[in-house]
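Cross-posting from the modeling subforum.

Setting up a comparison between two proteins and wanted a second pair of eyes on the formatting. Protein 1 (sequence, then structure tokens):
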Amino acid sequence: MLPPKQHKAYCAFYDSVRDTSILDQRTSTIVGLSAAMACGCDP
């Protein structure tokens, strides 16, 4: 659905958020839900 450049950027962001070596699991989940809600997606 996204152009290749934007898809690559989204995947990089998603992978960095899901990496729990930097953020704990709770914070990772909150950031993911916040990003989804900001884009208008229902969690």
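Protein 2 (same layout):
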Amino acid sequence: MVRNNIAVYWDFENVHISLCSLLNGENWYRKNMFTKQPDLIKIEKIMEFISGLGSVNINRAYANWSFFYAYSAALHNYSIDLIQLFPRGPHGKNGADIRIAVDILEDCLRHFHLNTIVLISGDSDYISIAQKVRRMGKKIIGIGVEETTNQFWIRSCNEFKFYSSIVPIEESALSPIVPSEDELDLDEAKALLKKALLELFLKTGKNHMLRPAVKQAMTRLDPSFDEAHYGFSSFTEFLTQCNDIIELRKGPKDLIIALKEPGSEEPATSIPIDDREEGPISDLHPYDRILRKQQIRLVNPEILAHSFPAIVELFKEETTFSSYSDFISRLREKLAGSDIQISHPEGLRIKNLLYKAYCFRINPNQISLSETIKTETDLRSRIYRMIIKRILDNVGLDQEVDVLYFSRILFGNEEHQQEVHELIRSYRAKRVT
């Protein structure tokens, strides 16, 4: 068995900023970057995960440490080498991405025994170094916060772990805003499982495979796949929840997995028809696929348009809610008063859009609306900008923007192209500055 010799590189501020944004709003860190920072990253849990992969030979973290002394104990406990990067320029850029990329390349060339690189960040700037690491025949594992991690960066890694999959909910500072189990899209994981099995069947000529081979194939197809992300403690537990599409039986060495025909208990050699309500992900528009990968499900634009004023009024009446379930129930009641009926899943999707767009302010045992959202126009702009950002950040730079499709998913028709153009222009201008 090959021993894993690991080099770990933390883009510490990137992960810290992501967690700050989820807890306190998108611009909180920018306003408070020169003050003492809260202790949010569970370093010990990340290190426990990494230590389980092999022997850690290099462990470096990059940041402007002047305001991160709340992390001192944990950083020292794991002998993490702290690299000081003073911010340069008016925007406080510290150049961590360049320094980390250079150090990874140098370490890989100097220390031939290193065979696994762990890079903790969600930044797309690391795509090139990931490609170089893989060309050297080494494995690269990424770790990042799901809500702010670039999808192309995920695909560049051999494996990718989301922060929420490593840190148990009860120990995370984000515990009030972790999605509940009924929001997790297990259908996507099942579709990936079927795709991996079919690929293995075509490659081997068999109609069944051993469990380890299936897990490896799923990770190869989607580096971000992790059964823990769907609430399962093991891959076997995940497989038992897929008994509607697969058959499990004990083999001499490990579990054997085969596909079922729809409505049959017999193993199949071909992929069953994907009968999910919204169709297989491969049939979706590229923009929908991007959003689906980020666990973002859109709501009927007409329903969403009616929801904006109702949400603002609701928070003016109630001020705070004790839970998301409470908020969703009250929103459904309020819309019903206007003769608009929405289901609980639709309420979950609306809540999820608000969460992804940093519309909530999270305090212990209560949820309120961000203080920057005063009107339904503020709320609408925040949601639309989030959707545009999530898509544009994850399409190729040479791809032409499909303004017509943006108009359809945001407004339900093609009559708002000028407004879409303005939203895109505004986002791009903000990104440049």
